[in-house]
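Technical note accompanying the year-one report. For the benefit of new consortium partners, we illustrate the data format agreed upon in the data management plan: each record pairs a sequence with a structure-token string. No post-processing was applied to the example shown here.
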Amino acid sequence: MADSVVAAEMATLRSPFTLKCGKTVPNRFVKAALTEGLADPNTNLPNRTHHGLYAAWSNGGAGMVITGNVQIDARYLECPRNVVIDPTTIMGPDEVSTHKQWAAASKANGRSLGIVQLSHAGRQVPMSVRWSGGVAAGPQRLQGVFQKMLFGKPRVLTQEEIEALPARWAGAAERCKEYGWDGVEIHSAHGYLLSSMLNPNSNTRDDKYGACAENRRRLLIQVVRAVRQRVGPDFIVGVKLNSADFQKGGLTEEESLEVLKALEKEAVDFVELSGGNYENPSFLTKTPTTRATTVVREAFFLEFAARARTHTTLPLIVTGGFRSRTAMAAAITSNGCDFIGLGRPLIMEPDLPRRILTDPAVKGAKVYSYGPQVVVKNLPTFVAGGLESTWHGIQMSNVGEGRGVDYHQGIVKPLVWNLFYTYIMDPKKSSARGRGMRLLSGEPAGVVLTGTGA
């Protein structure tokens, strides 16, 4: 009996899934987006570390491999070391080549589908990128002591600037297709620009992009339509969406369900569910539950996914919290979701999907301890989340460069890495960012700026 249960779980996770666009995902595992922070801040191009890291994830057996936070506007980055695909810049042959190598690495095993997560940081632009802050639907800056120390007050976007954004997203998606990727995921979660447009706290506009729920989701729908029109019907277009912002006055689950109903009418291939933002970073700090009595609900956003099933037939990816094979398979067989998104477990074990799919003895992700866990319980949520992300970022660098994971990595290096490189060294390098990019003919002067400025 036990053997048959295990076999059934493995068969469920191995089963292929064909998306609306016609592309087939070979299994139910998705390597979820993780901000790598590995690009050279002078160029914001992918490099050999990216190539090695994504080849490891593809060879590790994930059916879809999604990149982390590729920015569509070189002026407004989530961190100085983001990869940028800005359609207003001209790319030379060497630059195009490294992008194509990255796309190829994401499909190194010949079966995985490579997806680029396209994002605009909005108001969540650290001062190390741009001293004057980012841009947003409204003037509200991020709340919280540490948030105010690291992020400036955003400039309010004009209606004309908002109306130009769908074309920028579409141009970036078109480049992704040219580079050899299988699709894009439009990032509308975690408080970045599209997510903040949905949030009543940050979107206080009184024009056609604010004042009511339908207007607040207008830009997201316009972006989806523009991207689909540009890339055609056979390219994957997904959306990452917050189930809620988990803060008073923010996006509620009810409004998120209405967004899903609106996306149902568009040519969308999947929706990935997440939650939180930089003011309440639940996506960084939640701890998975693995007790036997709650194993079916060990994922963070599975309960919302169950509600979403009554509002949409779109394929759903649930990311965050999954650790056991049993819970993963149960989430799919119970119709809770269609795909299992794994982030940090695949940093620590890039080949985890392949081993779960082929070895009955592998029951799920390893339980491991690491330096930041010793102190994060006593730190503010935002600081703890940043520290844990930096620790895992170092491990991504290790994997990409062929060194493997360092389980004994302590807390000092992440602190130094985060404070020194991100907020002291990288801003100096990023001042060359504008000089290193060439504008497309006819683009107004100043579209691509340096790391600081107005």
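Partners are asked to follow this layout when depositing records. The longest strand covers residues 113-119.
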